[in-house]
TrEMBL record:
GO MF annotations in UniProt: 3-hydroxybutyrate dehydrogenase activity
GO biological process: monocarboxylic acid metabolic process
InterPro entries in alphabetical order: 3-OHbutyrate_DH, NAD(P)-bd_dom_sf, Sc_DH/Rdtase_CS, SDR, SDR_fam
UniProt name for this protein: 3-hydroxybutyrate dehydrogenase
Pfam family, one: adh_short_C2
Family that this chain belongs to: Belongs to the short-chain dehydrogenases/reductases (SDR) family.
Originating organism: Albimonas pacifica
Record-annotated membrane-spanning stretches: none
Amino acid sequence: SLTGKTAVVTGSNSGIGLGIAECLAARGARVVINSFSDSDEDHALAEKIAKEHGADVAYIQADMSKGDQCRALLTKAEAKFGSVDILVNNAGIQHVSPIEDFPAAKWDAIIAINLSSAFHTTAAALPIMRKGGWGRVVNIASAHGLTASPYKGAYVAAKHGVVGFTKVTALETAREPITCNAICPGYVLTPLVEAQIPDTMKQYGMGREEVIEKVILDRQPSKEFATVEQLGGTVAFLCSDDAAQITGTTISVDGGWTAL
Ligand code: NAD
């Protein structure tokens, strides 16, 4: 159980981050959910998760493309709940384009949100975790942190960077009761992936099921999506005592993608 622990999950008003936040709340953690927006829906979502799981849940706005806001998220979370024990770096965006046409602003945004944010949040979180005497940093990388695909230059570079930074964080905390690992999901059917299905159907002249099996899950041998619940469970495992000696490594949740 994660009772008494406080978790901050970046980019968690949707998709995988939301699934992880719910899973940690269900296991008794206090949870901070986050995105760049600050709408009534965001705060209502925090209330809904709190009610469903009888947990303390707060929404804290912070734009993960801005280093100072990344750091402020941790300060605000500590002020709200008294500690931060678990940091899940999940916020991420995608853009698909050949290198020569890749908009420089998109490159910068992907590096900032998918990679640099983890540097800023981790830098702010470690002193707080040291005060509490325990910590878990879990970075949501990707199968694209270990392998590549064409036209995803910024994303693949950022995710490989996350895997590298995970190892450095683990080495700098190796003598402390703090671990840092990366989870590398294959395809998960989140709004991010769902949004690509209609265009891909048109592009290939295929139906939904065929696009899912032959195009999207082409490299996922299980031919099934990983689920946000499975990713939440993997984060919870990395937060457990059984995982105390697992640090500086990656766990793939990819239906066999990286075995190919
Ligand atoms: P999603 O679009 O559903 O969720 C992304 C989340 O990040 C949202 O909550 C969004 O609000 C937030 N976000 C975006 N920009 C932000 C910013 N500037 N500041 C704060 N929050 C911001 O996507 P998802 O599929 O749930 O992706 C979550 C993570 O999982 C990403 O890092 C993604 O790269 C990774 N991932 C996803 C898949 C997949 O198949 N869906 C596979 C491997 C890795």
